[in-house]
TrEMBL record:
Species whose genome carries this gene: Halococcus salifodinae DSM 8989
Record InterPro entries: XPB_DRD
An MF annotation (GO) of this entry: helicase activity
Domain spans labelled DNA 3'-5' translocase XPB damage recognition: 4-46
Biased composition, class Polar residues, residue ranges: 55-70
Keywords, alphabetical: ATP-binding, Helicase, Hydrolase, Nucleotide-binding
Region of interest: Disordered: 49-77
Record's keyword annotation contains RNA-binding: no
Protein name listed in UniProt: DNA repair helicase Rad25
Length: 77
């Protein structure tokens, strides 16, 4: 999944349909999420660390409320 900042939203390229807070955007045929959900999306993908910077393989703080899925994330946001 590639995360891009685009006009106040996160454009989630090649994302699966189970990404939390994401909605399908027919205009670009990709999922989008509100930009303020950036950390939530990266935590879901196990790509957020405790120093508030993206890093693959870290445990999610929201594992109990959002199903975690370790996936490859390219973060350009």
């Amino acid at each position: 999944m590639r995360v891009e900042f685009d006009g106040g939203t996160l454009l989630l390229r090649e994302a699966s349909e189970d990404v939390p807070y994401a909605e399908w955007d027919d205009r670009v045929e990709e999922y989008r999420a509100p930009a303020y959900r950036y950390r939530n999306v990266l935590e879901w993908a196990d790509a957020w660390n405790d120093e508030d910077s993206p890093s693959a393989g870290q445990e999610s703080a929201h594992q109990g409320t959002i199903q975690s899925a370790t996936i490859a994330v390219e973060d350009t946001a």
